[in-house]
Amino acid sequence: MPRTYTHDPDHDYGPTRTQQRRDALAVLALANQLVELPQSKLARLELPEDVQREIANTRRITAHIARKRQLQFLAKVMRRHDTSIFDGVRAALGENRDRQRQETAAMHRLEAMRDRLLADPDNAMSDVIAQYPGVDRQHLRSLVRQAKVEKDGNKPPRAYREIYQLLKDLANGGGEEHVADEVDIDIDETEENDE
């Protein structure tokens, strides 16, 4: 549609072609994110029925060019709807991305702590104990020793994974079972000593 220009300074010409293209590319990027989302997360989003149907169609297509074409059609269907419909979806995807970054950063910190435990067990052990005073020290030390033996013997890294799981439980506050084990042992030992 050609633009007609007037000398009226208050006349609104609408968005420029550049802005229209930016908006279309933003919708295409959102469509791509929706197609890549797992079905469980996609079901939680409030999407129009025709958009859900086109997302399902796009997921079924495996050929690269056909999938790209279908993705563009999905974006076209999404542009037919008011942009306010997708504001909640954008907000949810932004929260997911932020949460995912935080989880990834926490995972990397735990992996680094595990690697420090294997490289320099004495210093790293004191750091872990300072950070998580209720940790079962004996269990953690035995896991570190076992992980070193497994690594040297070219065996599957079972203890290596257990160390990560233990650190993850402690970081999430779920390490109470190891604290409870120590408390039970202390109570049993004191009862035996009293007799």
Task: Describe the 3D structure.
With 195 residues, this protein is mostly helical. The protein folds into two domains: 17-81, Diphtheria Toxin Repressor, domain 2; 106-194, Orthogonal Bundle (Diphtheria Toxin Repressor, domain 2), CATH 1.10.60.30. The protein has nine helices and no strands. The protein has helices at 17-36, 39-44, 49-60, 64-80, 87-119, 121-131, 137-152, 158-171, 176-194. Helix 1 packs across helix 3, helix 1 crosses helix 4 and helix 5 (87-119) packs across helix 6 (121-131). It is elongated and about 80 Å long. It starts with 16 loop residues before the first helix and ends with a helix. The model is unreliable at 175-195 (pLDDT under 50).
Distance between the termini: 97 Å
Biggest β-sheet strands, sense, barrel: none
Low-confidence segments, given as residue ranges, are 175-195
Secondary structure: helix percent: over 70%
Mean of all residue-level pLDDT scores: 82
What is the CATH homologous superfamily assignment of the largest domain?
PSPTO4464-like domains
- Going by CATH, the architecture of the largest domain would be Orthogonal Bundle
User: How much of the residues is beta strand, in percent?
Assistant: under 5%
H/E element sequence: HHHHHHHHH
Which overall shape is indicated by the principal axes computed on the Cα atoms?
Answer: elongated
Q: What's the domain count?
A: 2
The CATH top-level class label of the largest domain = Mainly Alpha
Number of strand elements: 0
Structural class by secondary-structure content: mainly alpha
Number of helices: 9
| CATH topology category name of the largest domain | Diphtheria Toxin Repressor, domain 2
Radius of gyration using CA atoms only: 28 Å
